[in-house]
Please model this.
Amino acid sequence: MPHKKPIEIQCALNVIEGLDQADQEAYQALRKALPILAVKLKASGHEVTEDILRYHAAQGAEYIAARVKALSPSTKQNRMINYDDIKEKLAADDAEDMNAFFDSAEGAFLRLCTNADLDEIKAHYSADLDISEYGDVFLQSLINERRPDVINYLYEMDIDFGALFAADILNLTEIGCAELAEIIIDGNKEDHIFMEELYNLASFHNYVDILSIMHEMSIAGDFNQDTAMFNAAKGNALESLEYLHQNFSVNLSVGEHSALILAATDSAIDTMKYLLQHGESFDDVHDEDFAGIFANCDLEVLTYMAKNTTVFARSGDVFTEIRERLASLRDWQHIHTEVIKGGLPRYAHRYNPHYYHHDLVIELSEILRAEGVDNALDCAYNAAALFGSKAQLMRYLDKWAENAQHPLFMATNMISIPITGELDLKSWGDAVMQHGPAMAQLVQFADVLEAPLRSKCGRSWSLNATLDAVAEHVYEQGVDYPEWARLCLKVNWDQALFDKGADLIATTAFRQEFSDKDDVACLPDVVIDGALFDKPKYNFKKLKDGDLRGLVLGELTDCCQHLGDNGADCAAHGYLSPHGGFYVLADKKTDQIVAQSWAWRGQKGELVFDSLEYLDGHMNSVQWSGLLDNLAAEFQKNAEVSAFLVGTDGDTPKDLPYPQLCDAKLAQPRDYQGYRDSADGQYVIYKR
Model:
């Protein structure tokens, strides 16, 4: 979905829409250059209007390029880089991607829908417009612009808004389309999974009207009301919790006091109080649950516990630590006298007062909230503590930020400042400036590693040396398995998962021996150039046997195929078995993996990709089809491969253009009987 564009870029797109396209080369050059000029003009303090941009466009692309070059130095020399500069620069980078849609008749009509009154929109509507092709884009844009009148009109015109998410129903209700939301609910009430997802989401976000509608339609009778209660408690949705408690007599203490634990952990003070006032108690909550509560809750929850419960009278390390941390809050009295006149920061017990920069934290938290970040205060504190000043932080963002919608959050959310100890944040900040988010993730260990390590020449910071040093401190046996320890750090795994992987690695001698002998006959060792399926910067290839990334591929591609989730057995099989392995889509330059599949050989010679997993935005059905066709051509050269199949579950697209197998015809693994995504259906890419 195109995100909302800065005004200057919108002006540029409007001008581009009216340009003469007879000379396509000149037109394409202007399409690229004009949005960049608009951003540069705005950043250097110039007025940006459509008339001004039309004048520049009339001078040609070469003139604009010279103007952009002339503007760039003055921006750097005369003005400190600020957040708006960075956001606009990133938006300009995205402008070309947005042009194709907004150049179309449908894009022009969407612009009209978001800005004009309803009568004008009706006058310009035409059945020839293929709005349903972009239905999801229209719906999200109109929700963002709060145009219930236009949404209702388009629905009356039988526009298909595409596959709706549960959140879309809530958003429609929020902006005043409650009747339409009710119609959609009624039309989808047979979709049990979708309806239950909506019910739980409504519980979490306090949409009691939605809960009531679903009950009046007899939709929610079979739903797990305990799960809905847990969501309400976690979301601090007091009205939802009262509704569920009063109408369904839910047991508030079910699941070993899960609702109370969730409410306290997520600082949901209102629902926590309600639960305590209606018979719940912390008395039977286990010590390990309190460890999670104390690590996440805010000061208000802790203060309420201290005054109204007997929690802090308990013995044990977790309670001793939290008592000491609360006692240390007196340090704030000496260091931040002026700051605390209005009360301590919400998470003061989690912050080191020596590195708290109040004014910068407040400013950054406002930016983060505008980016839609829930834990804005935590992120702001960590970023401010590491960089110490706004100027230094903006330098970092200018160098490392990539996401135009959430530049501050995406570039800093991995930073975590240790609570105690004297920290060399100057050195850590310099190292993060050099290496970006990869080094920023290691700041959490600044209390065990005094400073990042330098390169052998001593003139720069070394990310790999720092990773090795941290790994030795963080994991037992980290010295024995340095590569595995570095990988575990990158995916933020704990000691238990490190140990699980180390045990597997220690058993792989036969796997290495096998790979030297006959691996090609088992899993073909192919490389497909991404240019063949519209991913020119990537190669699709078999992951080398023994590559430890095979154990964490799910972490790299946002799925469960790793040792810490449901796909743990799949990951272990692919790493250990002579009849299994992995194929990955990796950047040609950096080898970063953005898509992958666990592969196994079937009992009748089949080669099966269990599912197709990928990061959002990296692959679509057309690209997957192009890749699979090229793979099929390669695999058919191997006489031992009787068929090439792909599992239909997981993230595998549901609209691939291949026939499917089911039931008794499905391929079965030679040496695996656990969980897999190919168990209920398989696409036939080719079969001998």
Q: What stands out?
A: The first strand starts at residue 527 and ends at 529. Strands lie at 527-529, 538-542, 580-587, 593-601, 606-609, 613-614, 643-647, 660-661, 682-687.
